[in-house]
Amino acid sequence: MQILIISSFFIDPTKGGVQRVSSLLFEALMRKGINVYFLVLDGEQWLLKRESVKDSTSSLTLRILERTYFMPERDSFPRNENIEFSAELIQKLGITHCINQTDLFSGVVDWKPAVELKLGRPIFMASVHHNCVGCLAQNYRELRFGGRVNIDRVNGKLGWTKDEILFRMMDRNWVWWILSVLVKRK
Fold first, then answer.
1. CA 41 → CA 110, 115, 182, distances in Å?
2. What is the C-alpha end-to-end distance of the chain, expressed in Å?
3. Distance CA 69, CA 62 (A)
4. Rounded to 5, what percent of the chain is helix, strand, coil?
């Protein structure tokens, strides 16, 4: 079995959250004899430092770095260059499964079918969501508008700021219901 972990950024095991979980997953799967590789959208700083980090970083970081591939076009996953590159990489490495460690809005949803079309075969992908989807839908008002609108009120910018107008337009029950359905579907 060959697994490709897809990430928006380089998996640095010295960092927390998704990066730490991904590095632990990498170690556990490798111990079981499963080959694990990484595909990163934005890894420019690591790509430039690849040679210089060999002396100063942990051996786990170096092992991950040796198995990491960086997308040629770092603005977005579903770009043609990235689709071509990904399909060739998946074919070359014999990838059978992918683990999506990117955020909900990264473009992997559009990237996967394009790569499958290029390969002529389906790719099994498990997408990992590291936050509560329901929490995002329930707290969207506060996350998107509440903080900014409250800051504007404190600073005396009452009334017709762009965020205040957006908040008033969006603050309708039917809008929140549609957003929650879309988030749950995604």
1. 14, 15, 25
2. 28
3. 13
4. 55, 15, 30
State pLDDT tens for residues 130-185: 766 555 555 555 555 544 444 444 455 555 666 666 666 766 777 778 877 777 77
Instruction: Give residue-wise pLDDT tens across range 12-52.
Output: 888 878 888 899 999 999 999 999 999 988 766 565 555 55
Distance CA 49, CA 122 (A): 34
Residue of 86, 91, 93 whose CA lies nearest to 113: 86
* Contact of 117 with 106, CB cutoff 8 Å: no
Beta strands 2-9 and 97-100: pairing type?
A: parallel
Q: How far apart are CA 153 and CA 141, in angstroms?
A: 16
Phi, psi of 87 (to 5 degrees): -60, -45
Spatial separation of the C-alpha atoms in residues 93 and 70, rounded to whole Å: 14
